[in-house]
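Deliverable D5.2: sample structural annotation.
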Amino acid sequence: MRTLQTKSVLQRIAQTITVAGVIFVLLLGAGVCAFKYGTAGLPYIFLSAMVIFLCACGAWFSKYLGRWRFVVIGALALFSRMIMLAVWNLPPQNDFLTTYEIALQLSVSPMSQWRDVMAGIGQLYRDYWGVHMPFILCESGILKLFGGHYAAIQIVFAVFSAGSCVLAAMLGEKVFGRRAGFLAGLLLIFQPTALFFTSVLSNQHMAVFFCLLGLYFAVSKPLKSGLANAALVGGTLACSQLARPEMYVTLIAVACYEIYEVLTLWKQNHTERIALIKTAAIRIVGIFFIFFAILLLCNAVLKGTGMIRGSMLEGNFSYKLAVGLNAESQGEWNASDAEACNNAEELNRRIRERIQRPGDVVALVIRKEGALLGSYDYGWCTDGKQGYTAERFFPFMSEAYMLLILLCAVAVCICGFRNGRKEQMLLQLFLFGFFLIFALIEVQNRYNYLFLPVLCILAGGMFAAFYKKFSDKNAITDRVVENNKKKV
């Protein structure tokens, strides 16, 4: 992995804007985490520090695992999530219950009756939220194959969650090295929010897995053909989009990374600039083509069969923007905007009204970003539960753990200004893009679930320098001992 030694002006500008924005928002989130529970959170910060320290020590010995290191990460992740399903199993609630009930009805009905199901219990998703139809069909397929209880879906989603830990380790290894990658996987395995979220029937389990897979392909480029690599990236990101419609930002981040890669080689390859630009353009066009081809094909099939009436490519952006600009609700869901969800004229009026005072909008954006990056005690993780674990341990531990992860991520971003690897820029572009879009649209604390693996990867990167330093010291010591033996 190449460390950037010489940088073009455009490259420096792009890096400065992106990294400064990421650091600013991460510090906002860290501030919220630090002060959310005050001094009562100090014991949990100490406990989190011990967990992270033990993970860092475990990652040091990953060299002895060889090719089995990713198997170990996967096994640990799956085991921990199966344990959570056994001891902290939450029945589906609210939207998750609705999608499960639709999927269950589809799984027990012949295909000829699917239109009737969607005209009844699934009418809202058929008429207005068709973007979630692929996820509902996926749940239906799981129920059809493994039985009609939601436990089957939970187990499949636990496998995807464990797979995300493996991909975090693989991506971290590509960016920061073997030990730092292994540490990223461990940090995600024991991340409290991810553990307690295991039984929730959220589309985020699948979406995060395919998103990480797409980012991994974008960095590793495992195939010789540029178009083949583009197909891998576009295809996996499309799968993530079908599971949960939030991959447009990731798509743009990958395209920006391709351009950034050209900038990193701009000075070293004066005679090959045209070839570099051509290669990057082909990859970008290929990624976008495969991504939208898959979405358009699925959209055509679902509309043709009467499963949806609108378009999967439409996500009711006006509604999300109106909610995101609502200062009274702090940019979160509220009943007033929800009632106007399908009234485009009213939504546009509210948007125009809410941007009249730019100062208030800026203040709202800062509060939203801080809340988004500083809230990991999801209510979904404890819904209906009482006692110490639900009311004390989980909320305090999740905030304390992520406070340390965020601070480590900030440290590695700051160090990246001088000697960061170019692959690190993809992760920063990814975060920067989402921070920009969430500055405008609706936020909920669980919307940061997609960031957890990336933050753990960056946190693992902070230890890469320490691992290298101690490895170099050990190597020097071994050589000295060997030379002394030869002298004797």
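Annotation notes: Residues 273-304 form the longest helix (32 residues). The chain has a mean pLDDT of 88.
The annotation will be released with the project's public dataset once the embargo ends.
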